[in-house]
Specification:
With 331 residues, the chain is of the alpha+beta class. The protein folds into 2 domains: 123 residues, no CATH class; 167 residues, 2-Layer Sandwich (Heat Shock Protein 90). Strands 1-2-3-5-4 form a 5-stranded mixed sheet, covered by helices on one side. The protein is rod-shaped.
Length: 331
């Protein structure tokens, strides 16, 4: 497999195959002249077959065809009677047809082998990418479940302090907790719902943020979404949704003081035909002065970095009248 990879890399250089073919032909021609008188009659092409095979394998089909044609002409001129001419009789024509048939089959088989190896390598890359995506999503799911369990525990502790000895207050507290847990379940279903691919991204993000605000009970924070009518495939949409969920959740947890009014703006823009940008900006307290995402040990930041890589994107963080997270990714 390493040999196949090396040959595939060499074939990416269009000139290399022809140079290799010229060298292989020269060596084959020299070897054939050197064997003249040693070989019995009837082997004009013996040294040219390996040259064609190696050139096709290393340099590609076109270089192999050129090497085969030049090798056939050389054999016809020097090694097929009448010698030193391109005269054709019945025996010469039969020998040339035999040569063309053999090198044609060789070139075809090697080309099919190279194509199969390239497809196999591509499929291996896809499999590796899917495995990485599954690992990241599993980590994200664990992280999300842990956050949700902590949220539920904190919610119940908060409601417990408010209950006192009032049974009616206890029932209200349990109803509030139940409603928020149900909202969190809606968020999970929305994140992994394949039918969401038919919804424009802006509307999808707006509904997702509404669920997040309901789940956290952030009554003083509004979420604004500005996005053109863009839709993504389900894999890309899920990845972007996970990033939005992580960033918005962090903003709701850390950007605003208790009871403080605030806003979170999500904008999606197309930079060009191949690139989009997703911006998530809050107007809260901003990032700490010593914040360095590259050295952060937070699982959330590691997950977002891995998610960004899945959409061939680059994520950045800045304090601009609050906290801004920007993802530039392949559309």
């Amino acid at each position: 497999m390493d040999l196949m990879k090396s040959a595939e890399r060499l074939r990416r250089h269009p000139w290399f195959g022809y140079v290799f073919g010229a060298v292989a032909f020269s060596l084959a021609l020299s070897a054939r002249f050197g064997l003249e008188g040693t070989l019995p009659p009837g082997y004009p092409f013996l040294t040219f077959f390996p040259a064609v095979i190696l050139t096709t394998f290393v340099g590609g089909v076109r270089a192999g065809i050129v090497c085969a044609v030049v090798g056939g002409l050389a054999s016809w001129y020097w090694f097929i009677p009448p010698f030193d001419s391109f005269a054709v009789d019945g025996a010469a024509a039969l020998a040339l047809i035999f040569y063309a048939f053999i090198v044609g089959i060789d070139i075809l088989l090697i080309h099919l082998m190279n194509e199969s190896a390239a497809r196999l390598e591509h499929e291996r890359g896809l499999t590796a990418g899917l495995n990485k995506q599954l690992r990241t999503m599993f980590q994200e799911l664990q992280h999300r479940v842990a956050n949700n369990m902590m949220f539920v525990a904190g919610l119940l502790a908060l409601q417990k302090r408010k209950v006192g000895g009032d049974p009616e207050a206890a029932r209200t507290a349990l109803e509030d907790a139940q409603n928020r847990v149900m909202v969190m379940s809606r968020i999970h279903r929305r994140l992994y719902d394949p039918s969401a691919v038919n919804i424009p991204a802006g509307r999808y993000f707006q509904e997702l943020c509404a669920d997040l605000l309901d789940a956290t009970g952030a009554k003083n924070v509004v979420c604004l979404v500005d996005a053109p009518a863009i839709s993504f495939d389900v894999t890309r949409l899920v990845t972007l949704s996970l990033i939005v969920t992580e960033v918005v959740t962090n903003s709701l947890k850390h950007a605003f003081a208790e009871g403080q009014k605030g806003s979170i703006a999500i904008t999606l823009e197309r930079l060009d035909q191949e690139t989009c940008a997703l911006n998530i900006q809050d107007d809260g307290r901003g990032l700490p002065a010593d914040f360095d995402p590259g050295n952060s040990k937070s699982l959330g930041f590691k997950i977002m970095q891995s998610l960004a890589e899945q959409v061939q994107g680059k994520i950045s963080y800045a304090t601009v009248a609050g906290t801004r997270v920007r993802l530039v990714f392949a559309a």
